[in-house]
Every structure is written in C-alpha cells, then in structure tokens.
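Lecture 7 notes: from sequence to structure.

We start with a single chain of 416 residues. Read the sequence below before looking at the structure.
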Amino acid sequence: MEGGIYLLVAKDRNGRLCSLFSKSKEELDDYRKQEFFCPCCQSRVNVKAGAIKLPHFAHSRNQSCDYTAEPESEEHMKGKLHLYEWLRKQGLQVELEKYLPELQQRPDLFLKWNNEQYAIEFQCSIIPLEQIKQRTRNYIRYRIVPIWILNSRFLKVRNEFEYHVSAFLWSATFGKQLFPNLLFYSPTTYQFTKLQQLTPFSSKITFAYSKEEVNPTFFSLLQVDYPKPFAFHQWMQKKRAWRNNAHLFANFVQPFHLALYESSLQPASLPNEIGLPVPYMHIFETNVIHWQFWLCKETLLSKNIGDTVTTQEWRAKLIKCMKEKKILLRILPSNQSTNPFLPVEQYIHLLIKLNILAKKSKDSFTIMRKMEPFTHRQIGVETALYEKVASIYHELFLKEYHETIKAERFFYYGEK
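Now the structure, written as tokens:
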C-alpha cells in the first residue's frame, strides 16, 4: 500500500535517472511494467500515474527513507516542475531532484553555470529553523549556492511597504550582508515576488520593497537592484504607534521597561533619535527601539555635553548587551561571517550627521548635544528630523551599496 510521498525522479535497473514529467499515456503504461528505485535509499518505488495527481514515483508505506521525512504536496510538485521548465527554457543546465551523496541532501533543482553550482529549494511548508540552517550551511560548505524560493502563501502584507517576516522566512534569505532578499513563487499565477531592502522594525515586522515579475531570468532575480528611497513616512507612523501603545504591555519584570523607568523615560517620551533605521540592522533580531536604547543608555544617556565616547566603549557595551541577551542576533544561515558591529557603526555615523556626536579622532567622539525626551509639542520637530534622517539613511545605504557592487561585480555569487 503506497503512501503520499512524491518523487519525480527515480533510477531504472541500469542506474539511469528517469522522470515521468511530460510522458504520454503509452509511455506511462510502459513504465508501470518496469522496476524503479529511489536514488537516495535505493529501495523500490512504484509508478503512480492516475487521472488526478501528477505522475510520480512513490515508496511503499512500510519503507523508511530519510529523504521522505518531509512529505511533498501536489502544490510543491507542480511548483518544482514549473521552476524546472522556467530554468530549462533559459538554456541552463538544470537537474530535477539531483541526489548529492556527500551531503545526503537532494535539492529540488540543481544547476551549474559558469563554474558555479546552485541548489534551489522550493519550500511550501514550514520546517524547523535548525533544519533550514543545516541544509543551507551544508550547501555552502561544498561551495554550492543555496537559493530558497518560498511559496507565495508565505508572503504576508500588513500595510504599504510593511510585511510580516517570521524567523523561518528570515532563515530563507539570500544575498550579502547589506542585501538580504526573499524570493516567492506562486504555482497558480506563475508570478515571482522579490522582497528587497529588508529593514526590520521588530523581530517579525519588516519594511521592504516588493518586485513582481511573471517571467524573469534566474540571474535577474539574483541581481542587486538600485536602492530606492526608504519609506520613512510609514516608519514614522509605526514608531508613533509604538509610542502610543507600548505602555499597554509594559511591566517592570521586563528589563527594557525597568531600564526606561530608571532613565526617567517611558515609551511615549523616548527620544526621537532612538528607533531609527540604519544599514545592516537586519543583523539584529531585537526591536530597533530596544537595541538602540540599550546602547545609548550604556554610552550616551548618562554622559554630558563635551564628554567623550569611544568606539571601544560601543563595542564593549554591545558585547555586554549580547551576553545579557538584551540584544539578539538574527539567524541568517546564508551569511557565514556576520559582523554584529556593522549596524552600530552605521548608527554612530547617523548620530554624527544629526549633530549628537562629533568625530574627535578615528575612534573617539565628542557629545555635542543631549538626546531630549519626546513630548507631543515636538511633533513638528519629529517630522523635520525624519525628513533629514531619510536623506542621511539613503546616503549611508548608497555608500554601502556602491562598495558592495564594486566588490561583487553586480551579482551576489560569482561573476556573470
């Protein structure tokens, strides 16, 4: 009695890989008379070619196979075949369900191009973070570029430029440190969606730009797009909503709210300069308001105008906050060498541009003015500040963008 596990590729008695894709009824009838085996566990599999589901191979229920630990849906199988045809039409050397014995993994699609290898996974179900992390890092260890394409059902839009991005989705991002991207595909509409310029407000709420395409090329999806101006109006609205509502969930058991109280602050009075977007901030899973408050509390809020703060102090306070789990790093399996000081460095640059700090030497800064508690009489000041921050942020982002492009030659992986 067969189970519901689908395989699109199996071996015949001579060890040749065979697929049921695009076979005629007569060919399928002939295949039913032959013997086929799972490329992974080598056990016998059966041809399943009914009138409803796509033709596929299936293990028997009493057979155990590590590869089949994650059952495959009809939707997954259709999407995988769509992507296979899409890549094949571009003249790319693509293989369906290629088994990689050294990894004991079997990506949905595997392709080689210009001395690069790519493993493409079309993910239709949520899997444990540790599993996606292990699979991604196994690919990278063997110099295979992992590309996760998620079912468009996982794309959750909250408001304009605002998305719900779970830890699972973050673990499926690809790209260099400045440019994490998410790819989605719909087997129903045949549409790709690329989320780019991911700028998280909190662990699950992220601002981003989406780009929809029906028939892009594979490498155009990997290409670094020129950055767009950030959606600061929406960010400002989000921060105002946080100011107005954070007290509803506050209690002194939480270190953050206790620290606010000890600093003679409350969520509604948090200074304007805390909770601002900067490049690389996706490295932190912690809410942007929280991590910037912790670092400012430790380095700036207790000091006076004219005092000095050093890069070493910022680094030491970051390490302290990470050890105390006040600031958490985000799980980003595709980035093997995350530098947690990058967003802090960008925040320091922003504070210099806002005249909070002035550069004294290479690694030391003078406090030029204090961060003032926010009052509702300062709404006009806040709006003006955000307009200035919008320009500064874009300037900082473009600087990092041009340096990345220069190093990467327009592509994330390899050189076209």
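The first strand starts at residue 9 and ends at 11. Keep this in mind for problem set 3.
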